[in-house]
Amino acid sequence: MARITENRADVYQEITDQMIAMIEAGTRPWSKSWTGEAPSIPLRSTGVPYRGINVLTLWVAAMSKGYSSPHWLTFKQAIALGGCVRKGEKGSTVVYANKIDVADDRAEAGEDGKRSVAFLKRYTVFNAQQIDGIEAKYPAPAPMITNTNPDERDAELDALFKRVSIEIIHEGAQPYYRPSADHIVMPEFRHFHTGDDYYSTLAHELTHATGHNSRLSRPTLYSSERADRAREELVAELGAAFVSAAIGIKLHDREDHASYLASWLQALRNDKRAIFTAATQAQAASDWLLGRMGAEELACAA
Q1: 78 in a domain, yes or no?
Q2: Structural domain of 79
Q3: 142 CB-near residues (< 8 Å, 6+ apart)
Q4: Is 90 helix (H, G, I), strand (E, B) or coil?
Q5: Entry pTM
Q6: In this structure, are 189 and 285 located in the same domain?
Q7: Cα(183)–Cα(33) distance, integer angstroms
Q8: Exposed, middle or buried, 111 (CB in 10 Å: 0-12/13-18/19+)?
């Protein structure tokens, strides 16, 4: 039992420390805009998208090591496909949740005197660019939509976002979501530097809107506590990143970048599980939005 708890804590802290280090350096771990291209969701060997915290850890690995391929395989999967991980290459960590039954004589234990304890288990994957012999099997996938004119409105993207039945009012100079009225306020399109800035900002506000009590009922959306507000903004940022990656747009670099980085750092330092919770909630929000947009195959892949 003690060994499982220790391993679980190590994984949480290791990944949290990784995120903190990048944020301290002024880089958002969920933003791949440094490549000059729209990001893509990391994919398993089967082509199924990774989800939640694993999207972030693999984005960080790709960012740190310069990988452009979205495909990731275990050592055994590479061999099974006739490939070979190049000598000296180091893998990247992904995790999955598991449970173990332990003896417990407390009142809340089950009838058999046991209770389930959740923990994270890690395993190692390699990017397709670290593997020889599989190049033909893993070409880069096309995003759901490619914005060919990033400085102009895009009819396909407009149609996609319109399918999400949440009211959007265009006025003023500051984007925000108002839970009491359940509507989003957005500046006019012409006030944004690029089309990607507009659409990714809209994805951010729509992620906030998924927390409404009529949808995913996310408590942080309604809280007035500063720590909860930071967590909610982190969820909205990650949700926007997941949606943006799915539909092929780059994430907007906020003008209040520094203050947001500071608030996220505080949230992560105070709770090593904060980034895991935020990633899980952001994935749920992304699923909800992409499902309404008609991208169920992307939103619901497990």
Answers
A1: yes
A2: 2-137
A3: 248
A4: coil
A5: 0.86
A6: yes
A7: 29
A8: exposed
